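Aim 2 progress update. The chain analyzed this quarter is reproduced below.
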Amino acid sequence: MPTSAIVLLGRILLSIIFILAGFGKLTGIAGTAQYFASYGLPMPTVTAVVVGLVEFLGGLAVLIGFQTRIAAILLAIFSVAAALVAHMNWADMGQLINFQKNLAMSGGLLVLAAFGPGAYSVDGRRG
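Predicted structure tokens:
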């Protein structure tokens, strides 16, 4: 399989979780805001909208390879922040797994930021 196709597959797999999570947050603002309020996050409704947009639009950017390096860095930072805010109860195996998942996604996103989106991307067509 050509390298560009592998990078495309990687972008697709990395983006799915963000697109779906962001869409879910944006279509369920009230529930998301309530969940965020339970963590003591400020302005939970505004935070829900901002987080939903970051995930959804960042995921789409990674998927199509548009401004990929910026989107990947933003999502990597977001993933570490989410791990530190919502997944610190390591006595709960599910929380520990989610913490590790977020770190792993951040690692993949940083690799994408460092090496770029490949030829099969909007960025690859412009460059």
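Residues 3-27 form the longest helix (25 residues). Helices lie at 3-27, 29-38, 44-64, 68-86, 93-115, 122-126. These observations will guide the mutagenesis experiments scheduled for the next reporting period.
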